[in-house]
Amino acid sequence: MLTPRISSDLDRPLLITTVLLALIGIAFVYSATMMPASTVEHGLYLRQFIWLAIALAAGSLTAAVPYRIYEGKTSWLFYGIGIALLLLTLIIGHVGLGAQRWLGWGPVKFQPSELAKLATVIVLASMLSQRRVDLTHLGTLVKAIFVAGVPFLLVLKQPDLGTSLCFITILITMLYWGGLSFLFLFLLLTPMINVALSFYFPAWAVFAAVLAFVLYRSRLRLAPLVLVVAVNLAVGIVTPQVWNHLQPYQRQRITTFIDPSADSYGAGYQIIQSKIAIGSGGIVGKGFLHGTQKALEFLPEQHTDFIFSVVGEETGFLGAALVTVLYMLLILRGVRIAHRARNRFGSLLAIGMTSIFLYHVVVNICMTVGLAPVTGLPLPLLSYGGTSLVTSFLQVGLIQNIAMRWREY
∠ CA(236), CA(241), CA(244), 5° rounding? Predict the structure, then answer.
């Protein structure tokens, strides 16, 4: 049983915010699937209630067991299980919407990539919290990149570009929180910036000039300098090949993000309809259950990836702002707990779990308003889906675990 001292340190704002977001999610899953002519099952909100009960139990158990048990060899055990499940997914996983992302039997399916994210955070927290760890040492950085890179590549192979990029976010966030300087973080990010700008030569030329100036001013040793230049050259050569090997729908999503109107009845349809739904909600919305874009099923995947569009249409700017503020509160509480924790492993664990929320929330909301490509990422706690809901509560459970034991060294 939890002692009175531990229970008194429970982060109540975090708990209330999490449960409130989950309940809002169930309400809008009901709204998104209650139309008589709906092509999706009407009782999904009841299933989400069952998943919420399971998630609450899983989160409570995770919060009750002292988090230091996940440190050291145990972290590698969880990581190994996560990688094994990802490999198994590529062999016998269920295929849906052009990707092989699920494991399961019959009606029960789950996404191993969700569990792999948690396992990656745990093992990185264990690695980076070791005494005498030097984040500027090349061997340390290569090991951390390898740990995040393996699940990144396995998830990318499914293919699931949106989820795979979450592992990069986890790595960068935890390295920064662990004490890596902005210079080294910038150099780590240069290959991704290189890829993003390689399709527009003027922007790429500016980036190359900035990188050259930074490398000149940084006075790096020869080995790291050569490595940065070599990696960026390799990325520049490989990027066109990677583009040619992307799935057609992935290339469509990227080109549609740049210009949705170029294919308004095809790849751009999702973004355009989502923006229409949110814009038509105005200040106060059309009223709960009264969304017309939703009722006519113009919104794609409205109970999962685009549930924020339903919120915006039916509750307007005020409702969408309230949901956004709740997410901001959840993320800020996670950052506060990470900053407050006296134990380095606990601090890194909390910030890693918080970074997953941050990535999913920012990408999903930006996607629904046309500021990011369509990625297929669910909105944590709101979108329908058992795996997403349970793993979200596992994340919150671990953050609460650290909040209740913040005094421990």
Answer: 135
Give the pLDDT score at 259: 58
- Please, which residues have CB within 8 angstroms of residue 165's CB and are 6 or more apart in sequence? 152, 359
What type of residue sits at position 327? Y
Alpha carbons 310 and 302: distance in angstroms, whole number: 7
Q: In 129-221, which residue ranges form alpha helices assigned H by DSSP?
A: 138-156, 161-178, 182-197, 201-218
- Please tell me the predicted confidence (pLDDT) of residue 40: 61
How long, in residues, is the chain? 409
Please name which of 337, 377, 387, 374 lies closest in space to residue 357, comparing C-alpha atoms.
377
CA 101 to chain CA centroid, nearest Å = 15
Each residue's pLDDT tens digit, 386-407? 899 999 999 999 999 999 998 8
Residues of the chain with pLDDT under 50: 1-6
The C-alpha angle with vertex 406 and arms to 386 and 400, in degrees rounded to 5, equals: 15
Cα separation, 22 vs 383, in Å, equals 9
Check residue 2 and give its pLDDT: 41
Q: What is the DSSP string of 270-331?
A: HHHHHHHHHHHTTTT-S-TT--HHHHTT-STTTTTTTHHHHHHHHHHHHHHHHHHHHHHHHH
Four-point Cα dihedral 269, 270, 272, 278, nearest 10 = 150
d(CA 54, CA 390): 7
- CB under 8 A, 24+ apart: contacts of 126-131: 126/70, 126/71, 126/72, 126/75, 126/76, 126/345, 128/174, 128/175, 128/178, 128/344, 128/348, 129/71, 129/178, 129/343, 129/344, 129/345, 129/347, 129/348
Q: Which residues contact 293 (CB under 8 A, 6 or more apart)?
A: 273, 276, 277, 280, 299, 309, 313
For residue 139, what are its two tokens?
Answer: 């061997």
CA distance 342 to 356: 22
**200: DSSP letter:** S
Distance CA 21, CA 27 (A): 10
Distance CA(336)–CA(347), nearest Å, equals 10
Whole-prediction pTM: 0.88
Residue 317 CA to residue 326 CA, distance in Å, equals 14
- What Rg, from alpha-carbon coordinates, does the chain have? 22
pLDDT at 6: 46
Those residues whose C-beta lies under 8 Å from the C-beta of residue 9, and which sit 6 or more positions away, are 403, 404, 405, 406, 407
Q: What's the chain's average pLDDT?
A: 86
